[in-house]
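During the second half of the funding period, the structural biology subgroup turned its attention to how the target accommodates small molecules. The most pressing case was benzoic acid, which had performed well in the primary screen but for which no bound structure existed. We therefore specified the complex as follows and requested a full 3D prediction, including the ligand pose.
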Amino acid sequence: MAVRIGDVAPDFTADTTEGTINFHEWLGDSWGILFSHPKDFTPVCTTELGAFAKAKPEFDKRNTKLIGISVDSVESHKAWAKDIEETQGQALNFPVIGDENRRVADLYDMIHPNANDTLTVRSVFIIGPDKKVKLTLTYPASTGRNVAEIIRVLDSVQLTEKYSVSTPVDWNDGDDVIIAPAISDEEAKTRFPKGFKTLKPYLRITPQPNR
Ligand code: BEZ
């Protein structure tokens, strides 16, 4: 069954390149990003894992743990890690789940049989400290993900969980945000002391509140 925004992220215990992990316990009070790869020793995946590992300090700043998965064994992941380091100039610095029996892939509906009935698609799940799914993304195997976009949506999700705002098209951290329509003008004056511009009654813009 598909995992949707607002669902509790399915829990599991699995072997990873950093030992056995119980997912919810491992997340603790952190945010988490679980992302799947079609297969070890494949070109696009090799570039993605190197890029996520390089960006780990950005995820750390956002109290967010990374965990990868593919339907190959932990032994295979460990051998592949040497190629990732050699070709991408960055060692893996987060766990990758060995999911040979596709238990986790099935739990998260990462296998799309009409795309390929054995490989996982490129799924991304952002999970909050409450263990609820905040975002899902699905890319075909042939398209590598964009790490900057994943950091951008993580920033938006973390901000909009905390304040009654949403983020407009192409928003980036630091840009103006939109006040939730449910907030009255009176309330907006106290909640957003930097002020706001009313373009339409339903479209009120304010500077990012935590900046
Ligand atoms: C890749 O990572 O390059 C890849 C993996 C599976 C299918 C297509 C591309």
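Two results from this model are relevant to the next phase. The pocket of benzoic acid is lined by residues 38-39, 42-45, 119, 141-142 (CB under 6 Å). DSSP finds seven helices and eleven strands in the chain.
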